Amino acid sequence: VARGDEGRSPRALTAELAAIVGTDHVLTDPDLVAGYVVDWTGRFRGHTPAVVRPKDAPEVAAVLAWCRQEGVALVPQGGNTGLVGGGVPLAGEVVLSLRRLDAVAVDQIAGQATAHAGVTIGALQRAASDGGWSYPVDLGSRDSATVGGTVATNAGGLRVLRYGPTRAQLLGVEAVLGTGATISHLGGLQKDNTGYDLAGLLCGSEGTLGIVTAARVRLVPPPRDVAVALLAFDGAADSVAGALALRRTLPALSAAELMLGDGMTLVCEVTGVAPPFAGSGRPLRSAAYVLVEAEADEDAAGALGDAVAQLPGVRDVAVATDPRRATELWRYREAHTQAINSLGAPHKLDVTLPAAQLAPFVDEVPAVVARAAPDATTWLFGHIADGNVHVNITGVAPGDLRVDDAVFRFVAELGGSISAEHGIGTAKRPWLHLNRSQGELDTFRRLKAALDPDGVLNPGVLLPPLR
Amino acid sequence: VARGDEGRSPRALTAELAAIVGTDHVLTDPDLVAGYVVDWTGRFRGHTPAVVRPKDAPEVAAVLAWCRQEGVALVPQGGNTGLVGGGVPLAGEVVLSLRRLDAVAVDQIAGQATAHAGVTIGALQRAASDGGWSYPVDLGSRDSATVGGTVATNAGGLRVLRYGPTRAQLLGVEAVLGTGATISHLGGLQKDNTGYDLAGLLCGSEGTLGIVTAARVRLVPPPRDVAVALLAFDGAADSVAGALALRRTLPALSAAELMLGDGMTLVCEVTGVAPPFAGSGRPLRSAAYVLVEAEADEDAAGALGDAVAQLPGVRDVAVATDPRRATELWRYREAHTQAINSLGAPHKLDVTLPAAQLAPFVDEVPAVVARAAPDATTWLFGHIADGNVHVNITGVAPGDLRVDDAVFRFVAELGGSISAEHGIGTAKRPWLHLNRSQGELDTFRRLKAALDPDGVLNPGVLLPPLR
């Protein structure tokens, strides 16, 4: 196992790395390093002897070769927007920042882009849009999160329902593996059965097998018409059944976001926005809401309206007839994060349930949390048609992991996943065994040993220590 | 490297395998074995000491454990519909037939199915349809090709353009790896970032890393309305430009199949069908044709017609207004295989080109073939909007690989892939280096050594021998 910085003269280390990337691109000044050693939530804080900022794949390969030779561990870092501590040097690793690899090129004929690791998702989206196409992965951190980071974590986001996660966009990568090999497969062929899917394997491997330096991604035609509606239901069962039915009856469905009555009330209190359906003569608060969005060539609102009219259990409907109203409806969902944070830093758990277990989970998880921490409050929302629920818990000390443990065990009992889209990082390693058998963990370790034989790539991430 | 049957008493081998799967399921009689040792085209013919037919994953694991202990190589086989010799025991391997693993279950709520390896694609499609859903992978061999085989080869087929290849449908697998581990991840979670994507890695690995015993796949809503049109163009450049433009302007596009004038004439001669656009007053034969299909919630023909009306270079259009006419139009494309086979067994090459190189390839490849074999005739058709061209060559002896070599080298020069959807098998191993660097091949070998440390799984397939 590679070590961090202990046992090596910082000056010698800096000089040797500077010989590869240039003096200006080895940061050791605490002020300059500060932003690289802590995640944006402040939960994960580490330290590093140096932040190295290579400019291209050959420099990445040279830094990695040096690390292997010296037995120094490194942590690749993109936009540092992760939520599970996977990009922070918690054990004193060298930080390899990929942000200088920021070139992007759109192939308008093919409807594809080659984006280097440091390109932000926002910049990729803008380049795609300038070329008449759309990059379908979208997430709140779009202007910080990078292509490299989203490939390494198989980022999901707001439009997985229609377009799939990052892995579904990936036609190939350029990467430097832990073996030292630089592989490059950026030709953008849509069908290419010539061996193992290395791009797919690296995607979601959280920087433990190789360092992705560029990606070839598919683009999609921008939607011509988008419609948004907010539906109210009497409970989780009806709302989940409604969202799942829309997946079948409305192929144009691009989002289905669950909210609950408590969360909606909190959002309205914190933001000062009027509750939905105010003035409709109905009770102001419903037990559950689903925000739905559809994309179509034309008349998305008509298709959405027709599909919603067929749904049983819908108590109230608001259809946005213009973009301003659509933004207002989305705001109920998007303000959940801010509203919950106003109560103190929550435990943020991101889980998936099998379709049939979604409603029971939503109904029962507050009691599971309460048994573990009687003073805690549970807030639920998420991408419900994907099975993805964001479980936020307030009223618990940040370091008290009993609620996390209780929720993860409940999720696993129901056949769900402890990480829908955030990855495992360092934060969820203790619970990975709930989802993965000894045979799977052993297989992961064999793959790790095959592609990172010196164990220098993110050694503290994903794989639990052998017991 | 594991050996085939040499050096072992056939009787002892049979008895030991029968102890695992039962006497009835170890086939050694030449009449019974005959169908397992040759592919359907007759090009690949091998021999085997025994065909073993396990009934479930534990029996597969026991057979594999025995093979590892005895150093006996095995070839997993599904429907035996491959085109590259990947499922035939060319070096006397034991054949492991997965066809008895034929259970399939549809989860109507989730819109998913769990299909065991031996289920045919046709059976999976029917089960999906009975449940109100559709399995989007479709191919001509649907009633023979199996789930296990299509996962192992990442099969593509007729609807990749809209739904992606097999890998895009895959939510998880059950598999017995070459290490002996049985892994199972069939929960059907749509978002699940808990470690490396083992299902995606096994998909397309052609039975060299593990034996897939079951798959969890997504289903899609069946299309409500389908429209088909045949477009005529003056040449490859216009037809390719038209197909690529439709990808952007018609998101509902589900197929775009290229045909050329020579092929169309041959089809009409062989089948006795009238040429398209006969009686329109235009010349009977165009240089190129594209058959297009669109799927929509409603009025697919309208959407298709509108998009086609915007295309430059369209010389003639026939829109099918009923299913019978749609079938007639599809027949021009589907009869290509039969028509070409009537001239003698062709060399069938399946390649992908980058979008910008498609038209030059179509225009120039006949001359490339003619230089390698002056008496040869080249026939081109395929899934043009995917970049996928089927190159059929007649007038060349089956064993004369000079035309294959010339075409593959030309494809690689243009940045294309020597295998779009058929895989590498044994047939394309000599050319894999045209598409994959030494670093990539070395990485493949490391993955093979990690997951099949005894080298018993399909040792003659995919990876070229080390030089």
Layout: helices, strands, pairs:
2 copies of one chain form a homodimer.
Chain A lengths: L9 H12 L4 E2 L2 H4 L17 E2 L4 H14 L3 E4 L16 E4 L6 E4 L4 E5 L4 H10 L16 H6 L7 H4 L2 H4 E8 L4 E3 L13 H5 L7 E9 L6 E9 L2 H14 L3 E8 H11 L16 E9 L3 H10 L4 E6 L3 H19 L5 E6 L5 H15 L4 E7 L4 E7 L7 H12 L24 H14 L16
Parallel strand pairs in A: 2-4, 3-4
Antiparallel strand pairs in A: 1-2, 5-6, 6-9, 7-8, 7-9, 10-12, 10-13, 11-12, 11-15, 14-16, 15-16
Helix pairs in contact in A: 1-3, 9-13, 10-12, 13-14
Rg of chain A, nearest Å: 23 Å
Order of adjacent strands in the largest pleated sheet of chain A: 13-10-12-11-15-16-14
Q: Major β-sheet of chain A, in short?
A: 7 strands, antiparallel
Instruction: Please state roughly what percent of the residues of chain A sit in beta strands, choosing from under 5%, 5-15%, 15-25%, 25-35%, 35-45% or over 45%.
Output: 15-25%
Q: SS-based structural class of chain A? A: alpha+beta
Number-wise, the strands of chain A total 16
Question: Cα distance, first to last residue of chain A?
Answer: 15 Å
State mean pLDDT of chain A (0 to 100 scale).
94
User: How many helical stretches of chain A?
Assistant: 15
The oligomeric status of these chains comes to homodimer
Question: Low-confidence stretches of chain A at least 5 residues in length (pLDDT < 50)?
Answer: none
In percent, how helical is the residue content of chain A? 25-40%
Which chains have the largest interface?
A-B, 84 and 84 residues
Net shape of chain A: globular
